Amino acid sequence: MQLRPNGRKQGIAMVKSGCRVSIGLPVYNGENYLAEAIDSVLAQSFADFELIICDNGSTDRTEEICRRYAASDPRVRYHRNPRNLGASANFSRTFELATGEYFRWLAHDDLLAPECLDRCVAALDRQPDAILAQPLVGLVDAKGTVKFVGDDGLQAAASPRVTERFAALVRHPRYCWEVFALVRRDIMAKTGLLAPFSCSDVVLCIEMGLLGRFALVPEPLFLNRDHPERFSHAVLIDRAASWRWWNNNDRARLLDLCPSWQIQLHTLRAIRKHVSSRAERRGLYLGLLRHVLTRHTMSRLVIEPLTAADPRIQVLGRRIKCWLRGRKAPFSSVRIRPGSEVPK
């Protein structure tokens, strides 16, 4: 094994309490891309990490794949839930089991470039006032071909001013890729993690922005896979199915099926929780109000309670919207197959 400049050994490292990086990989029936995701982690040039895989009671070959990797590399820790806890609880479980100074999530269908951890750890070590490191993201198709590279407009999130960060993070729609950033674990512990409702990644990103500035790494080191079975193409179009995916139960209130309402309410709570300055708090409330009054957000706040009870109304609304824009409407149905536990 070779020594890195900082004295750490490359290659397989023994798992120990307090490693520098913990990677949480929540998965349910992820046999399609899981091995590729794990391989991308094990190929990292930065070796001082642990990979925590939490299997949410998969019924396909996920368990077999995970146990094979856990047996061959001591950095891989496999935990299988006795039953499906819902995606939210499974995400949280990976964080609870983490021991690293830094933490990040990885979906079973995404990939890390070999230098991802190295560059992100270096960015956080170099910028102690930054709470997370976010690289450029390459959006890839089912075969791994890069379609485009972007930063989701996060430049303002590197600002030391909380109002500027908030303005960048509250806008919608966004990819919210920074939910997969490398984060200081003690900072992540102050958040509500991923709450059990659709689009809770929006709230988590806002929360992290309230807690500190982001370090941006100008290299495409994280590959986000777009494929027909991903969350946003399947479960997310049916709010009741999305609720079941997050919680693994059918006991949903009307508010539970209205993600835009949930985002605004949880954002208000996050501001009260994390911002002590009255002046800054007033500025953030005003920024949130401006966001709520935009046509995009206001239309959703009005429409969601009306369409929550029947997904067919949602589908009809989408078709009308596409027709008005002159686009081909999505008349073909999407078969919902359990896949990666990640709100994309």
What does this protein structure show overall?
- By secondary structure, the protein is an alpha/beta fold.
- The chain is built from twelve helices and nine strands.
- It has helices spanning 34-42, 62-72, 87-96, 116-126, 162-170, 185-188, 200-211, 239-247, 259-274, 278-292, 295-307, 311-324, and strands at 21-27, 49-55, 76-80, 102-105, 111-112, 130-140, 146-150, 182-184, 213-225.
- Helix 1 (34-42) links the parallel strand 1 (21-27) and strand 2.
- The longest helix is centred in the C-terminal third of the chain and has 16 residues, at 259-274.
- It is globular, with a radius of gyration of 20 Å.
- The two termini are 38 Å apart.
- The model is unreliable at 1-16 and 327-344 (pLDDT under 50).
Helix/strand/pairing class, anyone? alpha/beta
The radius of gyration computed from the alpha-carbon positions, rounded to a whole number of angstroms, is 20 Å
Strand coverage percent: 15-25%
Order of helices and strands: EHEHEHEEHEEHEHHEHHHHH
Major beta-sheet overview? 9 strands, mixed
Spans of at least 5 consecutive residues with low confidence: 1-16, 327-344
Helix content: 25-40%
Q: Name the average pLDDT.
A: 86
What is the terminal separation in angstroms? Answer: 38 Å
Counting DSSP H or I runs of 4 or more residues, the number of helices is 12
Q: Which shape, going by the Cα principal axes? A: globular
Total E-strand runs: 9
